[in-house]
Write a structure and sequence with these properties.
The protein folds into 2 domains: about 10-55, no CATH class; about 100-310, Cysteine proteinases (Cathepsin B, Chain A), CATH 3.90.70. The protein is globular, with a radius of gyration of 22 Å. Strand 7 (about 250) and strand 8 (about 255) form a beta hairpin. Strands 1, 2, 3, 4, 5, 6, 9 and 10 form an 8-stranded mixed sheet that branches. The protein has helices spanning about 10-25, 30-35, 40-55, 110, 120-135, 140-150, 165-175, 190-205, 210-215, 265-275, and strands spanning about 65, 100-105, 180-185, 210, 220-225, 240-245, 250, 255, 265, 305-310. The protein is built from 10 helices and 10 strands. Helix 1 (about 10-25) runs antiparallel to helix 3 (about 40-55), helix 5 (about 120-135) packs across helix 6 (about 140-150) and helix 5 (about 120-135) packs parallel to helix 7. By secondary structure, the protein is α+β, with helices and mostly antiparallel strands. It starts with 8 loop residues before the first helix and ends in a 6-residue tail after the last strand.
Amino acid sequence: MTTLSPRGTRGRLALAALALLLLFATGFTVVGANVLGMGDRFDRLTARIENFIDPPPDRSTIPTVVVTPAPSATAEPTLAATVEPSASPSPSPTPLVRVAVDLAVVDDHQAVFTSQINDKYCAVAATQMVLTILGLGNPSNEFQAEIGARIGEWESLSDSLNGGWGPAAVSLALAAYGEPGYEIRAYDTYADALRDSAIAITEMNKPVLMFPWWGAHTWVMTGYRADADLTLFEDAAITGAYILDPWFPRVSSIWGASDPPGNFESLGELERNWPAYQGPPGYESIGPGWTRPEGVYPDRDGRFVVLLPTTPRDP
């Protein structure tokens, strides 16, 4: 998910020299073909070199709010004072009726979709799509490039140890283009993160940003289906979500082919991409939730991170 931004000529020259030496040492063909993941490892190594030469700024940014699970209702009876019945009891409330919900904040997913213009710009493209949905941007490659070029205004070490884009940078970018109020939340369970995301979409009429692939990617959740209104029934069950994946139409060596704009993702498919279990074959040692190889994120590690709107959409 993170992207690296040029920060200084000296740093770029030194990085380029080291990169050339590494290319000759490993072989251009091996890196270019990503044989045995060599290309991915090379990208991570060059990122670490750049951060060592010219680290991201260590400045305050949007905090991550850790959401603790709500306490379950107790089954034990409680003592209550005896109250005499009133002479004119109030009428019984109208019982709530369970009605299935199929909700999306986008009428035409294809019209607001933009594929990321390079393999590092998933967070940039997701930011762009949220702005387009809210009438604050457009789906052009030029607009995406403009957003991406401004990362120096928003990046911080605590948000992305690699430098570049993290959830806080996305929130700050949205605010810079006229959409403040997106809050980073981290949940202990996948189910709680998905449920609160659906409730936020219902109440705010705005999309949610998710960070699947152990925090390495960014999705835009535009809606969901459930067997009842989540704001009225605590036991309402979500059956899936509508997703904009900026990786489309690419194919991931780990996650497979990406789905087209606005695809309805079942719970199983959501969980596979936003792992609530240990990784696929070859990645079994990777735990659930946010798990980044570059270092420790105390408020995010092992949790499920989303960016939720906290202000309602203008009519």
